[in-house]
């Protein structure tokens, strides 16, 4: 009898404890859900080190150890603090403050123990830390027809990542404007251009690629490229004949 | 009521004897932090990184097991360096046993010990006395949340990694969180953080559970029930079995899962009840030969 009783109590206690434990676990999960940020919610100008895996995976992989920060010879990288836009403890840099100097041996990558900075990045030129965007044409000196060219000159991949494209200067009528033009297939997002911009607030900014890049619909085709690939127009003559649009009553 | 914990030891053997392990512990905590600070402050790089993951002498990787566990649960399989680092740390703490990390390494220990000391001075009494087993709920909840949402979500608020990282890389607003834990321990729940909430403690408890090194009440017949060890013990429930239930035939071994190996019980005991023993089996003999 005594045995039975002690059994009953222990079973009840077991259920009681399990329920309590589940409640506390539930409260913890809910509280964690509140502090969690949706992926990619970090500020677009908090850039990850070269070779960082995609942000969603990076937040799982990075162990917040700061080895990359200590390995960086230029003090570019910082660890995010409480209430910073990037999740606490993760490494980032701000291009306008200290840009990435694009070391050939990529010491931050070598220091990373977890693979959050991928060991697969073979050349620093293949890094995609962000993308430079000439975001304010209204203040960019080159857009006014002046020859500032500083962002273009400091670019480690000059004439590849940033080129100067000549355009007619309509204001004067007889000059050219040399428009700094970023090429997203080459730009590493190192941030040298943003740091060097001579304006009070930089007209060219490095943004996370998620923010900076558009993406074509998967069904979309550029007609002229398809034509070039095929060697001739893909439209057969006379197949497509739309009615001519005329003015009302015409 | 006695004037001071361990007064009898102080009277008979001196203050130093009554605080030897406490002093050793503070020395250990300070030197580990000091080793990490040598790099950024004096450019002497004996160890790089922080307690979450580090590199000793530019060769040996060391990784906090709780950090690895979170990363694994989130669905990421890390590089071998991180796994090796965690294996080394787990092996180290398995040998030392219990939650030695908590008492000898963790930077938060100084904060919560201070809160507890002040709590005793101010004679704070609180109504909330949750059982220490709620940490299992927090442990499970933190892991479920990590698996569920994006990123290592516990690390967004973990004051332990925050404190060590902050001291090395800059604290910013992080002090707010440390102060919150201090005040929580001081006014809300006694030993609230370390003995009730921290999942890192649970993690290290699991690591040190089967350690060959154990604290044993080997001389428990000599216990004069002064209760000093209960006052200083960060997890007093583990002392009840070995000390009070000797007649019911309980083991003299102190449960290694919750024991932080702070060895304060050895400091304050005037009867030398406690000892450290090494054995791989779960049983051990007391001085009088009982098992």
From TrEMBL, chain A:
The protein's matches in PROSITE patterns, at most eight in alphabetical order, are given as: 4FE4S_FER_1, 4FE4S_FER_2, TAT
Highest rank taxon of the organism: Bacteria
**4Fe-4S ferredoxin-type domain span:** 52-82, 89-122, 178-209
State any single GO MF term: metal ion binding
Xref: Gene3D superfamilies: 3.30.70.20
Q: Which Pfam families match?
A: Fer4_7
The reply to whether Metal-binding figures as a keyword in the UniProt entry is yes
Nuclease among keywords: no
Q: Which UniProt keywords apply?
A: 4Fe-4S, Electron transport, Iron, Iron-sulfur, Metal-binding, Repeat, Transport
Q: What is this protein called?
A: Ferredoxin-type protein NapG
In which organism is this protein found? Answer: Neiella litorisoli
Query: What is the organism lineage in this UniProt record?
Result: Bacteria, Pseudomonadati, Pseudomonadota, Gammaproteobacteria, Alteromonadales
Quick one: which gene encodes this? napG
From TrEMBL, chain B:
Protein name according to UniProt: Quinol dehydrogenase ferredoxin subunit NapH
Which Pfam families does the record cross-reference, listed alphabetically? Fer4_5, Fer4_7
Query: What keywords is this UniProt entry annotated with?
Result: 4Fe-4S, Electron transport, Iron, Iron-sulfur, Membrane, Metal-binding, Repeat, Transmembrane, Transmembrane helix, Transport
Q: Name one GO molecular function term.
A: 4 iron, 4 sulfur cluster binding
What species does this protein belong to?
Answer: Neiella litorisoli
InterPro entries the UniProt entry points to: 4Fe4S_Fe-S-bd, 4Fe4S_Fe_S_CS, Electron_Trans/Redox, NapH_MauN
- What sequence ranges are listed for the domain 4Fe-4S ferredoxin-type? 214-243, 250-279
**What do the Gene Ontology cellular component annotations say?**
plasma membrane
Phosphoprotein among keywords? no
**Where exactly are the transmembrane stretches of this chain?**
27-47, 76-96, 133-154, 166-189
């Amino acid at each position: 009898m005594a045995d039975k009783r002690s059994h009953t109590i222990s079973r009840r206690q077991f259920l009681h404890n399990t329920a309590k434990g589940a409640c506390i676990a539930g409260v913890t999960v809910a509280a964690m859900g509140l502090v969690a940020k949706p992926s990619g919610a970090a500020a677009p100008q908090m850039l990850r080190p070269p070779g960082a895996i995609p942000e969603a995976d990076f937040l799982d992989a990075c162990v917040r150890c700061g080895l990359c920060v200590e390995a960086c010879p230029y003090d570019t990288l910082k660890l995010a603090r409480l209430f910073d836009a990037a999740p606490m403890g993760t490494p980032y840099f701000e291009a306008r403050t200290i840009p990435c100097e694009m070391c050939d041996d990529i010491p931050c990558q070598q220091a990373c123990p977890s693979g959050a900075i991928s060991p697969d990045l073979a050349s620093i030129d293949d890094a995609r830390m962000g993308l430079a965007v000439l975001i304010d044409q209204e203040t960019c000196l080159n857009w006014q027809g002046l020859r500032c060219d500083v962002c273009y000159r400091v670019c480690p991949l000059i004439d590849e990542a940033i080129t100067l494209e000549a355009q007619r200067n309509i204001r004067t009528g007889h000059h050219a404007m040399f428009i700094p033009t970023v090429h997203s297939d080459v730009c590493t997002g190192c941030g040298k251009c943003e740091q060097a911009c001579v304006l009070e607030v930089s007209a060219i900014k490095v943004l996370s690629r998620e923010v900076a890049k558009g993406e074509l619909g998967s069904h979309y085709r550029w007609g002229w490229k398809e034509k070039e690939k095929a060697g001739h127009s893909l439209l057969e003559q006379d197949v497509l004949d739309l009615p001519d649009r005329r003015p009302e009553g015409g | 009521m006695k004037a001071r914990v361990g007064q009898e030891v102080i009277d008979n053997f001196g203050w130093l004897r009554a605080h030897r392990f406490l002093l050793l512990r503070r020395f250990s905590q300070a030197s580990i932090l000091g080793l990490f600070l040598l790099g950024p402050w004096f450019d002497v790089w004996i160890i790089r990184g922080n307690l979450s993951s580090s590199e000793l002498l530019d060769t040996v990787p060391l990784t906090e097991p709780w950090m690895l566990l979170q990363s694994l649960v989130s669905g990421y399989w890390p590089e071998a360096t991180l796994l090796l680092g965690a294996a080394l740390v787990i092996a180290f703490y398995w040998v030392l046993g219990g939650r030695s990390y908590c008492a000898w390494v963790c930077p938060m220990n100084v904060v919560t010990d201070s809160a507890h000391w002040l709590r005793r001075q101010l004679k704070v009494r609180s109504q909330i006395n949750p059982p220490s087993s709620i940490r299992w709920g927090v442990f499970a909840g933190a892991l479920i949340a990590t698996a569920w949402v994006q990123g290592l979500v516990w690390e967004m608020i973990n004051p332990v990694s925050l404190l060590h990282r902050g001291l090395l890389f800059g604290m910013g607003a992080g002090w707010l969180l440390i102060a919150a834990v201090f005040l929580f321990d001081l006014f809300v729940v006694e030993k609230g953080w370390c003995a009730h909430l921290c999942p890192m403690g649970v993690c290290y408890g699991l690591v040190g559970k089967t350690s060959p090194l154990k604290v044993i009440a080997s001389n428990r017949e000599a216990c004069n029930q002064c209760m000093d060890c209960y006052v200083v013990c960060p997890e007093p429930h583990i002392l009840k079995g070995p000390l009070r239930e000797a007649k019911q035939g309980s083991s003299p071994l102190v449960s290694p899962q919750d024991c932080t190996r702070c060895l304060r019980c050895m400091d304050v005991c005037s009867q030398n009840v406690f000892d450290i023993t090494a054995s791989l089996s779960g049983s051990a003999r007391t001085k009088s030969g009982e098992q």
